[in-house]
Specification:
There is one protein chain. The chain is mainly α. It has one domain. Helices cover about 60% and strands about 10% of the residues. It is built from four helices and three strands. Strands 1-2-3 form a three-stranded antiparallel beta sheet. Helix 1 packs parallel to helix 3, helix 2 packs antiparallel against helix 3 and helix 3 packs antiparallel against helix 4.
Amino acid sequence: MARRNSSAPHLALWLALAALVAVLDQFTKQLILGNYQLGDSTYVTSFFNVVRAHNTGAAFSFLAGAGGWQRWFFVALATAASLFIVWLLRSHPGQKLFAFSLSMILGGAVGNVIDRLLHGYVVDFLDFHWAFLSPMFYRGHFPAFNIADAAITAGAIGLILDELLRVRRGR
């Protein structure tokens, strides 16, 4: 009789979380694509707008004007990172903060890869702006982002926190 992998349910949970992030990301982007034209903006609060922006680059529009090759580069990079993340999740499913963080990054990466494959750009729509950001960003507008980007950021913060806690436990 084949031995059941005791980590399978945990791995399935982490992959389900990543899938949920990707689905939520795609759902919100479809709402934006269906209701906004490129450049449209809706005032929500004094510091937040919903906009429709396209990003052919990476974070902060890095390589956005590179001529098109970056689309496939970012797809390949995210695919390789996703495979590595799945391997890490499979190897460490019981490390909750670590696995949660990786799942958030995986879900975000998949959400943005879907955009690149379908559209050739990533749909961004969350626009936060504060006057104190004016020295760094045009009119104080932080670059628009999406649910996938927020998940990736939350995952990165989680990984840093996990490592800090691991070091602290090791003392």
